[in-house]
């Protein structure tokens, strides 16, 4: 496969820092969703996953070219799935040791390991894994469309075709065991187009990104009025998140693009503040473990009513960042120096940090 990505430059480095900030913001928004904020705030922040997928596309555009699909997929599997398995194994063992009768049952645990509904937090990893499977293909197609107008026509046209395909699949499998295929198809295709937007964003002028945001916002407004007319009140986009439908995505894209516009100057400012810069970089580079470590805090407070949502959010942030920092230090200073084979050290670093 030809080289699909340019070498890193000073501009690319600055862009990477903005992507880290975008990823950090998205991570906070995901945690916010899990602490039961007020309804208006829950709706406002409901663009977190698409924004993280856009950030993944931006990051992929700056990465090295994919020359072997199998090796690339295995690397993504180690970075995305195995950390989840390691965390879940430890988490479930601790729960059973503390209170076996209140611990998740076998079905819930298996569903979690297979990135299903399970305990309710790890489905998003399935999204990133599915998108990773097709990322090299998307990059190859993107590289064949140097003209931005041509790209926009293809992007919109293929999305429309995929929406029609998903509708047809839903009709064919409705009420049958085959309907489980929607857990793959109906997440893979919509998020693949969100990823493609992130992948292309570096070559799109801000004016075109703004036009996409405004057009998407107009679509969202029209759909909001239509749904409100059907039920008599505003319908949250959350209702169309599983799987992601046009109403949900048309809300998420404008806010994601606006966040990207904001992230660039904020990243430049953060670069002048060493501690803030270090924190943003750490969160951006260790987002998966920070995300995983917030789960016990949310689960501990779930349904207890013992603390307001904003204190739970603060606890999630402080705990998850602190425990991840400790984990990274222990891995780098105590574990890795005692591991001989270089390949094993690299794999352990990939799984236990990042």
TrEMBL record:
Residues 17-324 form the Acyltransferase domain. It is an enzyme of class 2 (transferase). This is Acyltransferase. The chain crosses the membrane at residues 49-73, 80-98, 118-139, 151-172, 184-201, 208-226, 246-263, 275-295, 307-328. Keywords: Acyltransferase, Membrane, Transferase, Transmembrane, Transmembrane helix. Its EC number is 2.3.1.-. InterPro entries: Acyl_transf_3_dom. Pfam families: Acyl_transf_3. GO terms for molecular function: acyltransferase activity.
């Amino acid at each position: 496969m030809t080289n699909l990505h340019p070498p890193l430059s000073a501009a690319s480095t600055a862009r990477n820092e903005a992507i880290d900030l975008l990823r950090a913001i998205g991570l906070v928004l995901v945690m916010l969703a899990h602490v039961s904020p007020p309804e208006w705030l829950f709706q406002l922040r409901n663009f977190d996953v698409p924004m993280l997928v856009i950030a993944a596309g931006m990051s992929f555009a700056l990465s090295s070219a994919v020359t072997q699909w199998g090796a690339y997929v295995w690397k993504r599997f180690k970075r995305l799935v195995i950390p989840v398995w390691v965390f879940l194994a430890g988490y479930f063992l601790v729960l059973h040791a503390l209170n076996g009768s209140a611990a998740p049952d076998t079905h819930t645990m298996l569903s979690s390991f297979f990135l299903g509904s399970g305990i309710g937090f790890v489905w998003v990893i399935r999204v990133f894994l599915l998108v990773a499977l097709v990322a090299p293909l998307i990059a190859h197609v993107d590289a064949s469309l140097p003209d931005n107008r041509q790209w926009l026509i293809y992007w919109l046209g293929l999305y429309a075709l995929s929406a029609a395909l998903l509708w047809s699949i839903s009709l064919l499998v409705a009420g049958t065991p085959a309907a489980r295929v929607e857990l793959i198809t109906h997440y893979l295709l919509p998020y693949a187009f969100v990823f493609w937007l992130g992948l292309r964003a570096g070559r799109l002028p801000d004016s075109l990104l703004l036009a996409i945001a405004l057009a998407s916002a107009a679509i969202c407004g029209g759909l909001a009025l239509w749904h409100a007319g059907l039920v008599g009140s505003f319908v949250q986009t959350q209702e169309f998140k599983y799987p992601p439908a046009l109403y949900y995505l048309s809300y998420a894209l404008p806010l994601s693009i606006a966040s990207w516009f904001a992230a660039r100057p904020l990243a430049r400012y953060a670069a002048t503040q060493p501690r803030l810069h270090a924190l943003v970089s750490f969160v951006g580079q260790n987002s998966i473990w920070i995300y995983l470590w917030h789960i016990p805090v949310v689960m501990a407070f779930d349904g207890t009513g013992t603390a307001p949502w904003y204190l739970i959010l603060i606890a999630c942030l402080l705990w998850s960042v602190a425990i991840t920092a400790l984990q990274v230090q222990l891995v780098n200073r105590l574990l890795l120096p005692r591991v001989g084979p270089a390949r094993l050290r690299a794999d352990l670093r990939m799984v236990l940090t990042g």
